[in-house]
Every structure is written in structure tokens, then in C-alpha cells.
Design a protein that fits this description.
This protein is mainly α and about 280 residues long. The protein is built from 14 helices and no strands.
């Protein structure tokens, strides 16, 4: 006796519609994400000069700006010397500058026809976006190693405990993932390299200077304090300052820092996943 069409398709668990398992497959999601990450890391291995070239700016900020303002003693930094106060901010700046222009890669992929093929695959859009975000985090970790070396040369007292180092790595990946996803969202909206680069350049400096990277929030005017409290870079700097240097403390609380960065990242992934197919239209 042959099975009826109804019995052949009624394998979904009770209370769930047929095809529910196809809506989200955790193993497939991780597999698709890993494929995107592997592709992006292969690009980095072929051309590591990007990491080295982006090390020039943090070197100037840490070794030149830090030297001058450290001698002036004009910025109140509590129990930390200015170098120790500045180093986490410069690391956060490096993460921001690497991630905020990440969206231009998607525009290149669109122009080369690669993105159209990815969107035609069965991979969920969220996996494509999350894969890009994790890839940005891997690039940021490589940059962080260089910033750590410069901070060590500058005499910063770094916290080498395994728990602190692990927290710094998680913070770097979270921050890079957040800003790269934001960058992807902008790329989906503007869809051209020229407009994207213009917007990216306009946004980086305000994000940096409206944060606690080079001076504490307590000395800011009231309007800037409000901006700093909604600026995700402030939470990344605060988290790195508490974990990276000996004697560092968190203004917002380490738990709040992680919560804000994670919440913003999830929200951006949801929005960008919806926008991602529109970039090829």
C-alpha cells in the first residue's frame, strides 16, 4: 500500500507548521557563517598589508598624541596615567576604523557579480551578514596585537591575566562585528562606492571624538555627554579600559558594556539581513 501525499508530508512536530525546521537550521547557519569567514580570511592572508598600513594611525595617536598630552597633564584620568588611559581608546579606534569601511567589500562583490551568487544560494541572509561581522572581528584581533605591542613599548601596564585577555578578545570581536554590520547597512542603502566612502569618512571622526576614547565623559559638556551615552564606541572603550590595563575601571559597568554591545549588534544584524538583498536591485 502506498503512502498518501498527506502522510508523506506530515513529519513536522505537533504544533509547528510543515517546513518549520527549514526556517532556522543552527548547523547550517554555522556552516554558512564559517564559509563566509574562511573566504574573508583567505583574502587577508593573500594581502596582509592592510593590517600593517592601518597600524600607522594608532601609532601616531598613541606615541605622538599620548606623549604630548601625557606631559601636559591637562586631562583628569584618575588613578591611571594618560598613556594607560589612552591605550584602550586607541585600540577601540583601530577596531572602529577597520570595521566602518567593511561595507565597501560588499559593493565590490556586487559589482563583480559575487554577491548575486551568494544571494541566490540557500544560505540565510543573516548567516551572510554574521559571517562578514565575524570576519571583521578576526581582522581586528590582528590589529589589536599590534596595538598591544605599541602600548607595551610605550610603557603601559597591561593586564595579562587570562580572564582579562579573553574579555578583551570578546570585546574586540563584538565591537568590530557591530561597526562592520553598521557599515554593511550603510552599503545596502547607498549602493555606490563613492557615496559609501564619503559617508564613512564623515562618520568616523564624530564617533571617535564623541566617545570616551581620549578624554573622560565627566569633563564633556552636557550635550556631548548625552551623545557619548548613545555612542556604541563609548561602551567598547569603557570595556577595554576595565580589562586591558592594570588599575582600569568601568564607568558603565562591565555587564552593561557587554549588554549594550551585544544588543546593538543583534539589532543591526536583524535590520541588515532584511536590507541585504536590496543592494543588488
Amino acid at each position: 500500500m502506498t503512502a498518501s501525499p498527506t502522510s508523506a508530508t506530515s513529519t513536522a512536530p505537533a504544533g509547528r507548521p510543515n517546513g518549520w525546521a527549514d526556517k532556522f537550521d543552527p548547523a547550517g547557519f554555522l556552516r554558512d557563517t564559517a564559509a563566509i569567514v574562511a573566504t574573508e580570511l583567505a583574502k587577508l592572508r593573500r594581502d596582509p598589508s592592510e593590517i600593517l598600513s592601518r597600524s600607522i594611525q594608532p601609532a601616531l595617536w598613541l606615541l605622538v598624541f599620548g606623549q604630548v598630552f601625557g606631559r601636559m597633564r591637562a586631562i583628569p584620568t584618575g588613578d591611571l596615567d594618560y598613556f594607560s588611559f589612552l591605550a584602550p581608546g586607541i585600540l577601540a579606534q583601530s577596531v572602529l576604523f577597520i570595521a566602518i569601511f567593511y561595507g565597501i567589500n560588499v559593493i565590490w562583490e556586487k559589482d563583480l557579480g559575487i554577491l548575486q551568487k551568494l544571494l541566490a544560494s540557500p544560505a540565510p541572509r543573516s548567516a551572510l551578514v554574521f559571517g562578514k561581522a565575524v570576519s571583521a572581528g578576526m581582522r581586528a584581533i590582528a590589529q589589536a596585537a599590534i596595538v598591544y605591542l605599541m602600548a607595551l613599548v610605550a610603557g603601559v601596564h597591561l593586564n595579562w591575566s587570562p580572564l582579562a585577555l579573553g574579555g578583551v578578545l570578546v570585546a574586540i570581536v563584538l565591537g568590530a562585528a557591530l561597526f562592520s554590520t553598521f557599515s554593511l547597512m550603510i552599503a545596502c542603502l547607498v549602493r555606490s562606492r563613492e557615496r559609501f566612502m564619503g559617508i564613512g569618512q564623515v562618520m568616523t571622526m564624530p564617533l571617535f571624538f564623541a566617545s570616551n576614547a581620549i578624554y573622560p565623559i565627566s569633563i564633556m559638556p552636557t550635550w556631548l555627554k548625552i551623545v557619548a551615552h548613545i555612542n556604541p564606541l563609548s561602551y567598547l572603550v569603557d570595556l577595554l579600559r576595565a580589562l586591558m590595563v592594570v588599575g582600569g575601571t568601568s564607568t558603565f559597568g562591565i555587564g552593561m558594556d557587554f549588554l549594550m554591545l551585544t544588543g546593538m549588534l543583534i539589532a543591526l544584524i536583524v535590520v541588515t539581513s532584511k536590507l541585504y538583498p536590496t543592494i543588488v536591485q
